[in-house]
Design a protein that fits this description.
- By secondary structure, this protein is mainly β.
- The protein has one domain.
- The protein contains two helices and eleven strands; from the N terminus they run ααβββββββββββ.
Length: 212
């Protein structure tokens, strides 16, 4: 009887330990790796959907809606300009080809690379990352979001190279929608309004990565 109780206790403790790693809505139910261990490593963007809306509420009200879809090779962006006061709009479609990767190191640093397929432009971002704690205001669990801050940004076109260094940056917050051993999904949802209340910007991004 004592052995049965001990066995059941161990199972319960094991389940609690493993399930405690589940933070994101679509995280695996069971994982032998911690959330930090799953995040560390090299990741490549294979899909991204984003929408940005910029509304200017002034004389001649205007709205700009930018929709982008990336499939791991190319990004198609549709930008729609609308004059709200005369109900007139037109759209512009752009296509670019690139690859983007990010590496999370166990020491809390990260590196991100962006490279155009025709090699006309490449950028390299260095910075630091941390898990964010629980936030009731933002309805986030502990380690359900990460903060990325930039320390250096390098851009080159093959001929000229520019380097910018940063200190004391606020950083960008990403919610971890899913974190598996081979797949990572980050989301961004934020909005900002100018001090005079006349300009509103809203952004929503969902990015899917696969481990390399």
């Amino acid at each position: 009887m004592k052995r049965i109780i001990t066995f059941l206790t161990l199972i319960t403790l094991f389940t609690i330990t493993v399930v405690s790693c589940k933070k994101g809505e679509n995280d695996p139910f069971l994982s032998l790796l911690t959330r930090k261990q799953r995040l560390e490593g090299n990741w490549k963007i294979v899909k991204e959907e984003s929408k940005q809306t910029i509304t200017n509420n002034a004389v001649g009200d205007t709205s700009i809606v930018i929709n982008s879809i990336y499939d791991g090779t190319k990004q198609i962006t549709t930008t729609t300009y609308t004059a709200l006061d005369v109900d007139y709009s037109y759209s512009v479609i752009d296509t670019i080809y690139y690859v983007e990767e990010i590496k999370f190191d166990k020491d809390g640093s990260y590196t991100k690379t962006f490279e155009m397929s025709d090699l006309t432009n490449s950028t390299f971002t260095d910075g630091n990352w941390i898990f964010l704690g629980e936030s009731e205001a933002n309805e986030l669990k502990n380690k359900e979001a990460i903060l990325l801050t930039t320390t250096k940004f390098t851009q080159t076109n093959g001929t000229n190279t520019s380097i910018e260094s940063y200190t004391d940056t606020d950083g960008d917050t990403y919610v971890i929608n899913q974190l598996k051993n081979t797949e990572l999904i980050l989301t961004v949802d934020k909005s900002s309004r100018s001090d005079d209340g006349m300009h509103l910007t809203e952004l929503s991004v969902k990015t899917t990565y696969e481990s390399k």
